[in-house]
Amino acid sequence: MKLALFSPYGSLHHEGGLIYLLANYLVKQGADVTQLRCDGALPACGRDKKHPSGRTPFSCLECVGEQKALASWAGVRARELSSFIAPDDLLTSAQWISSVSGGDLSRIEFRGVRLWHVCEDEFRSRWPVENMERLTAAQERDLRGLYVAYVHATVSSERFIASWKPTLSFLTATSEPLANAYLSQIRRVQSEAAIFSYDAPTESIVVEALSSGERYSTPLLLPNIAEMRADPRTWAPELSAIVHEMLSFLGHGADIVPA
């Protein structure tokens, strides 16, 4: 089994802990697991809104550090997002997005995908915009940054998936551009994925199997998982039972961890 992890916002998302809990268990079962790590190569992301003034010089360093800590705890390897982006890609996409007039920002497409559609949720979570034709300079700059980030993440995801060929991917909820980009490439090659999202009303994590659309829900939230014991043999029976149940739901029935 080759498992890819794409949870590019460090500890920002509630679902990250569960993703790495399952990854840890599967590593101990002999699965080949790799984290696709965002290493600050993108001009914008869903984590920027964590800071009132937007991205700071330390935002990416903090996020990369959290991703490294999660990977280390789970015992998984990592490939950096920037390693799949060539310098010419950066220049070409930035020039293209910059050349688009403000009035056309809601209509431009990349590989048949309207960029506004995959970036709208993230953009509106930052700006309460009603009229796309009347964006301020700051709003327009932010939207262009999200577009460039989506394009770069799409290209990087495509190359990562093509070179590593995962049989299953775990990724965070797809309301944000980076996760949307990765999911678009998983769909393109018809690979399998499990999408993890946080449901605020029930305070639970929902896991959706991409191929079937079936869902599994658990109240298990693990905000500080890197501080937990990493050896599955030391986990509480109740925790191990949830792991087994979830892996069975995903079609990868868990066996007893080897001694």
Query: Helix and strand succession?
Result: EHEHEHEEHHEHEEEH
Q: Whole-Å distance between the termini?
A: 20 Å
Q: Which second-level CATH architecture of the domain at 2-84 and 153-249 applies?
A: 3-Layer(aba) Sandwich
Sheet of most strands = 7 strands, mixed
Beta strands, count: 9
CATH class of the domain at 2-84 and 153-249: Alpha Beta
How many DSSP helices? 7
Strand content: 15-25%
Question: Could you name the ranges where pLDDT drops below 50 across 5 or more consecutive residues?
Answer: none
The CATH topology assignment of the domain at 2-84 and 153-249 is Rossmann fold
Q: Looking across the biggest beta sheet, what order are the strands in?
A: 3-2-1-6-7-8-9
Short description:
The chain is an alpha/beta fold and 259 residues long. The chain has helices spanning 16-28, 59-74, 87-99, 115-126, 137-164, 177-188, 237-249; strands at 2-6, 32-37, 77-80, 109-110, 113-114, 168-172, 192-199, 204-209, 215-218.
Fold and architecture overview:
The protein has 259 residues and is an alpha/beta fold. It has a domain at 2-84 and 153-249: Rossmann fold (3-Layer(aba) Sandwich), CATH 3.40.50. Helix content is 41%, strand content 16%. It contains seven helices and nine strands; from the N terminus they run E-H-E-H-E-H-E-E-H-H-E-H-E-E-E-H. It has helices at residues 16-28, 59-74, 87-99, 115-126, 137-164, 177-188, 237-249, and strands at 2-6, 32-37, 77-80, 109-110, 113-114, 168-172, 192-199, 204-209, 215-218. The chain has a seven-stranded mixed beta sheet with strand order 3-2-1-6-7-8-9, with helices on both faces. The chain has a two-stranded antiparallel ribbon with strand order 4-5. The two termini are 20 Å apart.
